[in-house]
Amino acid sequence: MKKLMLTLIATGIWLLAQSATAALKVLTCEPEWAALVQELAGDRISVSSATTAAQDAHHIEARPSLIARARNADLVVCSGSELEVGWLPLLQRQSGNERIQPGAPGYLETSQLVARLEVPKSIDRSLGDIHASGNPHIHLDPRNIARVAAVLRDRLAQLDPGNAGVYASRTDQFLQRWREATQRWEAKAAPLKGLTMVVYHKNMAYLNAWLGLREVGSLEPKPGIPPTTAHLADLVTRMQSEPAKVIVYVPYNNPQAAEFLSERTKIPAVMLPFTVGGSDGAKDLFGLFDDTLARLLAVAK
Amino acid sequence: MAAVLAAALVPPGTAVAVTEAEVKELREQFQQMKREYEQRIEALEKRLQQAEGTANKAENAAAKAEGVAAQAEVQALKAESAAVQAGSRPAADSAFNPGVSLVLNGVYGNLSQDPARFRITGLAPTGGEVGPGKRGLSLGESEIALAANVDYRFRGTLIAALQPDNGIGVEEGYFQSLGLSHGFTLKAGRFYSSVGYQNEIHAHAWDFTDAPLANKVFLGKQLADDGLQLKWLAPTDTYFELGIEAGRGRSFPGSDRDKNGAGAANLFAHLGGDIGASTAWHLGLSNLRTTAQNRSYSDFDSTGAEVSNSFDGASRLWVLDGILKWAPNGNGTDTNFKLQGEYFRRSEDGNLTYNGANAVAARATSVGTLHSAQSGWYAQGVYQFMPMWRIGYRYDRLDSGSVKLGLVDSGTLLAADFPIFAPYRATRNSVMFDFNPSEFSRLRLQLASDKSRLGATDTQLFLQYIMSLGAHGAHAF
Predict the structure, then answer these.
(1) What angle do CA A249, A255, A261 make, to 5 degrees?
(2) Which residue in B273, B274, B329 is closest to A55 by CB distance?
(3) Interchain pair A125, B438: CB under 8 A
(4) Which CATH number does the domain A189-299 belong to among 3.40.50.150, 3.40.50.1980, 3.30.530.20, 3.40.640.10?
(5) What mean pLDDT is predicted for residues A165-175?
(6) What is d(CA B127, CA B163) in angstroms, rounded to the nearest whole number?
(7) Beta B136-139 vs B99-111: how paired, if at all?
(8) Residue B437: its chain A contacts at CB < 8 A?
(9) B5-25 pLDDT, tens per residue?
(10) B307: which strand partners?
């Protein structure tokens, strides 16, 4: 009995010690936010992403390992706008962690910090899987990332005042480099203006708005519905009269539908990394845009 | 001056005759040149000044235009988002309404055996809805769920089931805490107990049309108790959760009693994690303890007459459950696989009251002891082989184990007077196909060979639809 009590007390002390580690723990829903937090905070935080570039954030489940990470997190950064509605609310409710509840400083919904595109005028499930507050895939416009970075810096400083100076100076440096890089990308992407593309899922809206590209169709008949043979046949017919310049898909899409359309219409299909880790070139946020533009320019001659 | 110049220009010793007139001419030419060049320089300078002025003006104008354009853009965006927000903001009263969702389901059942005579041999009936349902076309339960945050501390949920026979029952009605901190969660009200894995999942989210045999015999299909639940999630990297429930114990395996304290208690532990990027697993162990008073069931005696018996005593149930989910790189959109299984072990100790239908002395009401140790398990696998299409297989097995009846041991009654306790291992094989056009709709075909009843194999075919409407929340892992 005494041994049991001592073991329990020792375990209790050990467990408390675990939760008292100094570095801020950040959990992000998507890899692009983990990359951004890493840029702004360096080694002052430990950050992990709940999803990888190979996974579709719409189809993730609140599995035990994610709940455990949410329980220990001091800050959760997600795109929001119902992109993670299938699992994030469960992570928050089952974690028993008051710091990351909606409205708490430890929860940041990045899509609410920028102007969203494609806000639907009517909401009905017959229109597919639509997001009531607009298109949530905001990270493909570097100006949105700059806006999020500014808010993230303040949030990190609020949660970890001791390192506020570090976050401020790192963010300044990052934004400086980011501004220069954005101008460089805009110059490099000038020949792409007016490029027409067929997408797999409607997740390129912000990239297109930034660079003046145009989405003329999607492989999904409706958002969230996998490509059907009928719809692909329809697209083939459309492309014969008004061909697009390129077919775009991302790492977590099955390439079959894009390859099918490409073969029938002779329009090149290209896989864009979409997020950090989506390709060898997209190792960080700068690489993400470098690689995306390089792939588009290579194909859109 | 001219003379000195002339003298300087002429090399010494040279005799040149320079007239006054020539010098005057030179002077005049020189002055003229000077004037000309001065004029031209002046003109050039003027032009340069003008050009600079124009350039400056142009630059200013351009900068102003840019500024105006940027402002216009910002205003346009603001106006757009304001318009959308204004358009989407609902009236004040309904703004905080709970999210409502509705689940519709219906079944066509083709059963080779009469469903009214359904029994699971070897274990006492639970009185719950454990049969295979009706033959032919019928509406299943329609489920209405309402959920919303109460305030910053609590969230409330109500799930009501509208029965096809026009009854309405409360399946779940509870509130839970939001972020109690330190990993604690408190829930109170009526909710599905955390006994095993399947018990907490609503029927519309099951992978098969019906519950596993083990859940039917040990939990009366699904156990929902009125009480409290406290869970603690450890601050470890591996998911580790401990929990305790205290409830009324109003339904099988307990019974509704008139008592001030808790009638049932459940202790559980969960463990979970990932294996690589593709696999996630979850293990659980639960121990449910309750007491039953007058828990009755009907049976037949050795003459074939109907009897009504009842059990009084303690019931202890252990459940070990496990689930494994796989998807290539964790991306389940195209293909994924789910493997699930649970093992139940129950022991009951108490008294069995035999209420004989005949007034014959030896068959009148008699009471004897009952000690039973019984078990059962199931294992199922579901594979999504392409988007929207899944195939599944399930194997059920029960073991009547050992049932020691004092009335039989003492010779008062025969073993044949308790046909339900005949030693038997019930088994069932089920196969299902389902088509899911979206995560909200499902059409299923299920075939089963059900050997729950001794001597009668039921061949079952089910066609089912499940439709979800409204603010459907996320399903647990």
Answers:
(1) 85
(2) B329
(3) yes
(4) 3.40.50.1980
(5) 96
(6) 17
(7) antiparallel
(8) 225
(9) 555 555 555 555 678 888 999
(10) B299
B184, B293, B159: which is closest to B244 by C-alpha?
Answer: B184
- Separation of alpha carbons B279 and B285, rounded Å: 21
pLDDT given for residue B360 in this prediction: 54
**CA–CA distances in Å: residue B269 to residues A112, B68, B266, B416:** 38, 64, 10, 41
* Chain B contact present for A13, CB below 8 A: no
Is the CB of B178 less than 8 angstroms away from the CB of A93? Answer: yes
Domains in chain B, ordered, with CATH? 99-470 (2.40.160.10)
Distance CA A89, CA B148 (A): 12
A226 near B CB under 8 A? yes
**What residues in B contact A232, CB-CB < 8 Å?**
none
Of B77, B184, B270, the CB nearest to A115: B77
pLDDT tens for B176-196 read 999 888 999 999 999 999 999
Lookup result for tokens 């029965």 = B163
Tokens 């089952």 belong to residue: A94
pLDDT band at B359 (very low <50, low <70, confident <90, very high): very low
DSSP 8-class letter at A32:
H
- What's the complex ipTM? 0.89
DSSP bridge partners of B379: B341, B395
Summarised one tens digit per residue, pLDDT across range B113-169 is 999 888 899 998 887 788 899 999 999 999 999 999 999 899 999 999 999 999 999
DSSP codes of every residue in B44-101: HHHHHHHHHHHHHHHHHHHHHHHHHHHHHHHHHHHHHHHHHHHHHPPPTGGGGPPEEE
| CB pair distance less than 8 Å for A97 and B330 | no
pLDDT at B91: 62
- Side-chain-side CA neighbours of B200 within 13 Å: the count stands at 12
Q: Is the dihedral of CA B473, B284, B278, A102 positive or negative?
A: positive
Using one digit for the tens of pLDDT, what is the confidence trace for B383-420? 999 999 999 999 999 999 999 999 999 988 888 889 89
Which residues from chain A sit within 8 angstroms of residue B232, using beta carbons? 96
Q: Measured between CB atoms, which of A95, A119, A225 is closest to B84?
A: A119
Task: Please report which helix (H) or strand (E) contains residue B42, including its range.
Answer: helix B20-88
Question: Which residue on chain B is closest to A117 by alpha carbon?
Answer: B81
The reply to whether A43 touches chain B by the CB within 8 Å rule is: no
Contact A85 B474 (CB under 8 A): yes
DSSP three-state, residue B131:
coil
Name the token pair of B17. Answer: 């005759």
Q: Buried b vs exposed e over B189-210: b needs ≥16 C-beta within 10 Å? A: bbbbbbbbbbbbbbbbebbbbb
The sign of the dihedral angle between the CA atoms of A252, A257, A261, A264 is: positive
Whether B196 and B284 have beta carbons less than 8 Å apart is answered as yes
A219, A240 contact by CB (below 8 A): no
3 state DSSP class of B409: helix
**What stretch(es) of chain A map to CATH 3.40.50.1980?**
22-184, 189-299
Q: Could you give the CA distance from residue A40 to residue A174 in angstroms, rounded to a whole number?
A: 7
* CATH superfamily membership of A22-184: Nitrogenase molybdenum iron protein domain (3.40.50.1980)
Which candidate, B35, B33, B25, B34, places its Cα nearest to that of B2?
B25
Taking contacts as CB-CB distances below 8 angstroms, the residues of chain B near A68 are: 233, 236-240, 272-273
Residue A163 pLDDT > 50: yes
**CB B168, CB B160: distance < 8 Å:** yes
Q: Which residue has the tokens 């010690």?
A: A17
